[in-house]
Amino acid sequence: MARLLLLETATEVCSVALALDGAIVALAEETSTVNCAARLTLLIEECLRQANCSLRQLDAVAVSGGPGSYTSLRVGISTAKGIGYALDKPLIAVPTLQALAFAAQQHASADLPARYVPMLDARRQEVWMAIFDEKLQPLCPAQPLILDEQWPQHLHALAPQTPPDALWVCAGNGCGKIPPETLDNHLQKSPIAACSAAYLAHLAEQRYQSRAWEDLAYYEPFYMKPPNITTPKKALLSGQ
Fold first, then answer.
1. Is CATH 3.30.420.200 the classification given to domain 97-189?
2. Which of 90, 181, 202, 220 is in Cβ range 3.0-4.6 Å of 213 for a Cys bridge?
3. From residue 202, how far is each of 6, 98, 125, 191 by CA, in Å?
4. pTM of structure
5. 117 secondary structure, DSSP code
6. Residue 126 — φ and ψ, nearest 5°?
7. Rounded alpha-carbon distances, angstroms, from residue 120 to 23, 85, 96, 101, 207
8. CATH code for the part of the protein at 3-96+195-209
């Protein structure tokens, strides 16, 4: 009976859940990452209170592994590593896009073969996306994609073995950038628009049972892009 703490901080959502054998028994989340570093520990305390559980009773800590915001991912990973180090608990990383694909699959029609296209907002008209089949196996690696009028053709090129009658299901906060005229009966938006720690439960349970654990010392999240670090204006003016 695996008791897993789940942390989701890859995007604008700060979310914590506790799962027992893959089923959610407690959930606490906020839709803003303002002061996420401070709020995350409070959300963890709330989840543990809801489930009448202590940190020492956990079997492992699972975290959303990216892609996503550099700062937000660091908050989640650092917190997960801290718990793992302090209590000697395994660390599990669940790819953020795969978790979104799983959530979209739970809400999709089973009548047609499907391809799941989770996408995260990457600013301007770009998203970070991947394509998964019905078994949630990746058909292309996670990558950036510009959502112009030709983007459906790019999807087919990335997964050329997709049946012609397949339903393409898009999920995540990047869906808001999809040009409405490109949607049709075979290319649809999922109601799953935001990340949640609850979406990690099933995949984290699978990884726990197969002992697909990360190295606490060396694990780093998948940022997709390096952080956008700029020089402060004061330093520029002073010639530093």
1. yes
2. 90
3. 11, 11, 31, 19
4. 0.92
5. E
6. -105, 150
7. 25, 30, 9, 12, 23
8. 3.30.420.40
